[in-house]
Amino acid sequence: MVFLKSPFANEPLPQLHYGPVLLRPPVLSDFESWVRLRQESKNFLAPWEPLAPNYEFSKFNFRSRIKHYQAQAKNDAAYAFFVFHRDHDHLLGAITASNVRRGAAQMCSVGYWIGKPYARQGYMGHALNALVGHAFNGLSLHRVEAACLPSNQASIALLCRCGFSEEGMARKYLNIAGKWQDHLLFAKLSEGR
Average per-residue pLDDT in the chain? Predict the structure, then answer.
């Protein structure tokens, strides 16, 4: 396994455990599991994600993705994790703390996806709680932000269950499914408010 150094923790990136899930940085040997789950979930995820390039499932693209994740973590810019079932070692999805801002802000944005076979079974709630705990305790951040489409009731419910508060609407915030779309903005603070 490749371990990356965080300039703030001065330790290898951790594996995070929470309930039935294990979060760990993705590695090249995850390629086949990732391709299988992403292809199986393509139509399920399409309404909630940016359009994928034609070469999305190439090994070259996956290798580039892993290198990007490693560089981002090394520079304290983002931390990507694959989400696995703790007992069965099945890849369930992924979650990332990205756009890490230091200085007066001390915050990040979180993004996530879950494979269709594992949706609405509570796994992403465990993963989100693990990542938020790491953001506050491991990365010493003060605020974690998230955004989702107003029509994504499952994601809204997830964020609310995990203690995020809705803060407003961002017009044409992200390009999802080929068009600029409004997003609801959510955040959770380290002091729990």
Answer: 92
86/22 Cα distance (integer angstroms): 5
Beta pairing, strands 143-148 & 107-114? parallel
Q: Is the pLDDT confidence value at 55 over 90? A: no
Q: pLDDT tens for residues 86-104?
A: 988 899 999 999 999 999 9
Spatial distance between the Cα atoms of 130 and 21, rounded to a whole number of angstroms: 9
Among 177, 90, 95, 183, which residue's Cα sits nearest to residue 144? 95
Write the DSSP symbol of residue 12: B
Helices 31-40 + 59-74 axis angle, to 10: 110
DSSP string covering 13-55, please?
Answer: PPPEEETTEEEE---GGGHHHHHHHHHHTHHHHGGGSPPPPTT
Radius of gyration of the chain from Cα atoms? 16
CA–CA gap between residue 25 and residue 73 (Å, rounded): 10
The Cβ-side half-sphere exposure at 15, using a 13 Å CA radius, reads 12
